[in-house]
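Whiteboard transcription, Tuesday session. T.W. wrote the structure tokens on the left side:
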């Protein structure tokens, strides 16, 4: 999830609701200073969720998160196909988020939002 607007805890709560038990929520970017997030940590621990932060496309130790991600997708293969498979027009963002919560075997790994046109 990207918290670029950073003024509400709603995105992280939605991400924690959508992630599978044992999954990882990556919070990319930063919240505004002094924002207090009310996140049920007991549920995070009980469900064995990994909560990880990445600030503004981190560039450290010879890596650039954004460039590394583009390179991985450009190489193609099964991983790239999985990352780009489930596409929803921006106008259907709620349907895309609902798909993440489906209790089906082949629910999306992630949802890619595309232009409505």
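and on the right, the sequence the group agreed on:
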């Amino acid at each position: 999830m990207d918290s670029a607007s950073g003024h509400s805890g709603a995105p992280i709560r939605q991400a924690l609701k959508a992630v599978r038990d044992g999954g990882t929520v990556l919070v990319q970017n930063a919240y505004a200073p002094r924002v207090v997030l009310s996140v049920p940590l007991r549920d995070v621990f009980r469900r064995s969720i990994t909560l990880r932060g990445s600030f503004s496309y981190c560039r450290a130790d010879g890596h650039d998160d954004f460039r590394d991600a583009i390179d991985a997708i450009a190489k193609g293969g099964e991983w790239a196909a999985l990352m780009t498979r489930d596409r929803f027009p921006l106008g259907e963002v709620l349907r895309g988020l609902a798909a993440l919560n489906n209790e089906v075997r082949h629910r999306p790994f992630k949802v890619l939002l595309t232009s409505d046109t």
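Someone added at the bottom: The chain has a mean pLDDT of 81.
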